[in-house]
Design goal:
Protein name: Protein-lysine N-methyltransferase EFM4
Number of helices: 10
CATH class of the domain at 13-66 and 95-150 and 157-172 and 204-223 and 245-284 and 296-332: Alpha Beta
Radius of gyration: 21 Å
Subcellular location: Cytoplasm
Mean pLDDT: 77
Low-confidence stretches: 1-8, 72-89, 183-203, 225-244
Number of strands: 11
Keywords: Cytoplasm, Methyltransferase, S-adenosyl-L-methionine, Transferase, Transport
Domain Methyltransferase: 97-168
Shape: globular
Biased composition (Acidic residues): 68-80
């Protein structure tokens, strides 16, 4: 048993770095998508994991948590309702379409939040991204949606809000629903206010639901962990040495935890990590010293409470999915 527990806590092997993990890549992508949308308002940009219908399945999962939602009886929600009745998932909270608040990390073009609005969710919604061009693009789409609906483009009403924010280097208290104005400022949070200096106080109220559709994937593809230095050997030959430190994605859980209210949900979708690996990343205690300090100071942790089914495949006798969506709850202990 001890061996099995130790194996369950082992950190998954890191992914090979890729340009998809760099801010430059995403800035350039959204510059192009802004231009495309300006020429064709129907072009809303890339919807990540669209081939797996991930966005619709995530929304269906959330719809199933509000029994009063108009969409809760739709057949698309049947699998999600069934998953809630599985052993161990009985602690999923009831959500309310009229009041549940959402924070979307790495929002991109805001597609997931717009999808929730279209599905009837009316609570406060904020999408954040470290790419200023992403935020500009999402706001541009929000304006075009208001124009299509015949609304005042200068008044947001119950519209989705967007803000520039670096999840790994920001101060979580600046993103709490209670600290935001009725309409988020168009100005990015000053860099000097984005230096992480501790956890949110226990009395602060976080978001009901935190969303991640591919953001942890992108962060996992970035490596700032290697620094090269030169040294001379006994033959006066200069050789390069590499010093390895922690990868940026190892600090992601600690950055997300303070943003969720107690009993709130973290719904994450990944194409790079299996369900088992996601569970180890967000339930494990092997991570950084910062995460360990957070755990000891407030005793917060994530507990897996749900999942979304996707079509599976078999290869070499192993059955798997091309995409994974898990739901975690923030709990004490």
């Amino acid at each position: 048993m001890a061996g099995a527990q130790q194996q369950a806590q082992e950190k998954p092997a890191h992914l090979e770095p890729s340009e998809l993990g760099t801010k430059e890549y995403w800035d350039n992508l959204y510059v192009n998508e802004i231009s495309n949308h300006a020429h064709d308002p129907d072009d809303k940009g890339t919807v990540w994991f669209d081939d797996s219908d991930a966005e619709a399945k995530m929304i269906a999962f959330l719809n199933a948590l509000d029994p009063d939602a108009e969409t809760s009886d739709h057949s698309d929600d049947d699998d999600c309702n069934q998953q809630q009745r599985q052993p161990g998932n009985g602690s999923l909270p009831r959500l309310h379409q009229s009041t549940t608040t959402f924070l979307d990390l790495g929002t991109g073009n805001g597609s997931l939040l717009f999808g929730l609005r279209d599905a009837g969710w009316r609570g406060k919604m904020l999408g954040v991204d470290y790419s200023a061009k992403s935020v500009e693009f999402a706001r541009q789409i929000a304006r075009s949606r208001r124009e299509e609906d015949g609304e005042d483009t200068q008044q947001g009403g119950d519209d989705v809000e967007f803000r520039e924010y670096d999840i790994l280097n920001g101060r979580p208290e600046t993103l709490l629903p209670s600290t935001l104005p009725s309409r988020a400022s168009s100005e990015p949070i000053p860099q000097q206010q984005q230096q992480q200096d501790g956890a949110v106080g226990e009395g602060e109220e976080g978001w009901d639901v935190i969303l991640d559709k591919g953001t942890f994937d992108a962060i996992s593809l970035y490596s700032s962990s290697s620094s090269s230095s030169s040294q001379q050997d006994d033959n006066n030959t200069t050789t390069a040495t590499t010093t390895s430190t922690r990868r940026p994605n190892e600090g992601y859980k600690a950055a997300v935890l303070p943003l969720v209210r107690e009993g709130g949900l973290f719904l994450i979708t990944s194409c790079n990590w299996t369900e088992d690996e996601l569970a180890r990343w967000f339930e494990g205690d092997f991570d950084s010293q910062q995460q360990e300090a957070e755990r000891q100071s407030q005793q917060w942790r994530f507990s897996k409470v749900g999942r979304v089914d996707y079509p599976s495949f078999s290869f070499g006798g192993v059955k798997g999915q091309t995409i994974s969506t898990l739901c975690f709850m923030k709990v004490r202990g």
